[in-house]
From TrEMBL:
Annotated protein name in UniProt: DNA-directed RNA polymerase specialized sigma subunit, sigma24 family
Keyword set, alphabetical order: DNA-binding, DNA-directed RNA polymerase, Sigma factor, Transcription, Transcription regulation
Source organism of this protein record: Streptomyces harbinensis
GO MF: DNA binding; sigma factor activity
GO BP term, example: DNA-templated transcription initiation
Domain RNA polymerase sigma factor 70 region 4 type, chain residue ranges per copy: 119-160
Amino acid sequence: MTKPPKVQLPTDFEAFFTAEHRRLLAYAMHQLRDRRDAEEAVLEAGTLIFRKWHTVLAHANPMALVYKIMRDVTRDFYRRSARVPEVAVAEPPDSAYLHELRSHEPLDTAMDTLRRAAPLQAECVTMRYLMQMEYTDISDRLDITAGAARTNVSLGLARLRELMTTVPRQRLGGQ
């Protein structure tokens, strides 16, 4: 299978960012697990993309470069924020919200393990099932073929199933 043809991005950055903002936000939310942090990361990535807009447009696979920038920003987000003092929030989180998040802990733990062992598989699974992207869109954003995206999703899901059934329950937050 060959690589898909180069995606034509609009020459106007605003039109591009408006169209792609929701997907970038979904990607960042999965990586950072906090909406405010994800919004901040998307804006930071948007700033970098804007500064390099002509480079992005000239790139052989512009969407892959956009997602590489987004991936790098989300990876460095907490490193950078550790150097900046935090301001306490006005209201503590609702306990119902924290209880709801507890049900996601086994999947989050398995995804973290998969992300360390096979980052490409983890990204493909994230884009396919959490961002609900098609294989061709995944291949554009990760600069791989659609067949490779399909294979990485399949392998990633198999590995996630294995991790969620073999990891001891107490490590996953179970009783």
